[in-house]
Design brief:
The protein has two domains: 2-95 and 246-280 and 290-325 and 363-408, DD-peptidase/beta-lactamase superfamily (Beta-lactamase); 116-222, Methane Monooxygenase Hydroxylase, Chain G, domain 1 (Up-down Bundle). It is built from eleven helices and 17 strands. The chain has helices at 2-16, 38-53, 99-112, 149-154, 168-176, 185-192, 210-222, 226-238, 294-305, 318-324, 397-408; strands at residues 59-66, 69-80, 85-86, 93-94, 133-134, 141-142, 258-262, 265-270, 291-292, 309-310, 313-314, 341-343, 348-350, 365-368, 374-378, 383-389, 391-392. Pfam families: Beta-lactamase.
Length: 414
């Protein structure tokens, strides 16, 4: 009985989501109409509420769709624990590295238009990054080849993030601080021009500043700022009305607090009232600068999941979307500890069934963000999931809990 009530509540929430900012309601369906079980989907809510009760997260939301229809969308817990403010369906969250998928799609739109090619050298568009060197403790040496656009999308460019306790190259990046949110995207490029790569482009995988550089390429090629390009080419066509590099003053009441777990307690890491997101952004980070809602991000990711279309309009070519969601790496197990995983253009891709969970089938793809936000899709089973929360450090525990429950809710073969 309780599970039916919670699914009913979730469905009512779905049907009432028109937002205060003029987005069309999300396309919805009864779970049974697309081969899923309402009762089994309700287990997601039961588990998530228990996690909130036991202090495993402060609040968040889970959205599940199948065949382009939202079948489950429910918020849990609090967006502001100090104010006892519930997480809502339209709560705005920092999506950090979930920005990377949007930046990659923006660049691929330019590829589709013939203005950019995947194997073009980056220096063709950003001459400041010509003549790259590779770090060597005995003296930096010239890179064997230039970075390419494809390598930016797959994190095989040799660019890294700064880490004061990391490798020598990561320490150099940390000292130079190219990812300065008080600076500009041009400042990033100018600083990178004086730093060595961690390895020759195309010879290894390392998560880092590649997608921020890709954002600079989008700006140079399009002649627009990244904010302008996103707004005109992605956000407006897809009705992503709450996504951007800043939270406007009139929406700050919907902007969640970001928490960090220390000594078993949740500490405020970023308060909306003083957050950099409450001010106009000077550094437009294509690697991690956006805020969004679950519904907005679903509109973007569902466009990818259904082959590049939204609202009857072609956004990306089908063959381009296929490249995004298929492994692009020669060594499909060498980039992370997960056996069977690879990387497409902007996403992690399952290349083989994961031994620890054989329900993660070939082709499942997705990624996440620093504050434990996540999204993933399985093209064979035709489902897409977006989960939001605002908790540091990053953990994938919501994915680990929710993904098996989504598979269990698929009943069309029964």
């Amino acid at each position: 009985m309780h599970s039916r009530i919670f699914v009913l509540i979730a469905c009512v929430a779905i049907l009432s989501i028109t937002y205060r900012i003029h987005a069309e309601p999300l396309p919805t369906a009864a779970p049974e109409d697309v081969g899923m079980s309402s009762e089994k989907l309700a287990k997601i809510g039961e588990v998530m509420r228990l996690r909130v009760t036991y202090g495993q997260l402060v609040g968040g939301s889970v959205l599940v769709s199948r065949r382009g229809k939202v079948v489950y969308f429910e918020p849990f817990g609090l967006m502001d624990a100090e104010a006892d403010k519930p997480w809502q369906a339209d709560t705005i969250a920092r999506i950090y590295s979930m920005t990377k998928g949007i930046t990659t799609a923006a660049a691929l739109m330019l590829v589709d238009e013939g203005k950019l090619a995947l194997d073009d050298p980056v220096e063709k568009y950003l001459p400041e990054l010509a003549d790259r060197t590779v770090y060597d403790p005995t003296g930096n040496r010239p890179a064997k080849s230039p970075m390419t656009i494809r390598q930016l999308m797959t994190h095989t460019s040799g660019l890294v993030y700064g880490n004061a306790e990391g490798t020598p190259v990561e320490r150099l990046f940390a000292e130079t601080n190219p990812l300065d949110y008080e600076g500009t995207l041009q400042d990033l490029i100018d600083k990178l021009a004086g730093l060595p790569l961690a390895f020759d482009p195309g010879t290894d995988w390392h998560y880092g500043l590649s997608t921020d550089v890709l954002g600079a390429v989008v700006e140079r090629v399009s002649g627009k700022t990244l904010a302008e390009f996103f707004q005109e080419r992605i956000f407006e066509p897809l009705q992503m009305v709450d996504t951007g590099f800043q939270v406007p003053q009139e929406k700050l009441d919907r902007f969640a607090v970001c928490y960090e777990q220390k000594d078993g307690k949740w500490i405020v890491e970023d308060d909306p009232a003083t957050s950099r997101y409450s001010r106009p952004a000077t550094f437009l980070s294509g690697g991690g600068g956006l805020v969004s809602t679950a519904a907005d991000y679903w509109r973007f990711f569902n466009m990818i999941a259904v082959g590049g279309e939204a609202e009857g309009k072609r956004v990306l070519k089908p063959e381009t979307v296929a490249l995004m969601s298929h492994n692009q790496l020669d060594d499909k197990s060498g980039w992370v500890a997960d056996p069977g995983s690879g990387f497409g253009l902007g996403f992690r891709v399952v290349c083989e069934p994961i031994p620890a969970d054989d329900r993660q089938l070939l082709g499942e793809y997705g990624w996440g963000g620093r504050a434990s936000t996540q999204y993933w899709s399985n093209p064979r089973e035709e489902f897409t999931v977006v989960t939001l929360e605002q908790t540091l450090p990053y953990r994938d525990s919501t994915f680990v809990v929710v993904n098996p429950l989504v598979y269990e809710a698929i009943v069309d073969a029964e």
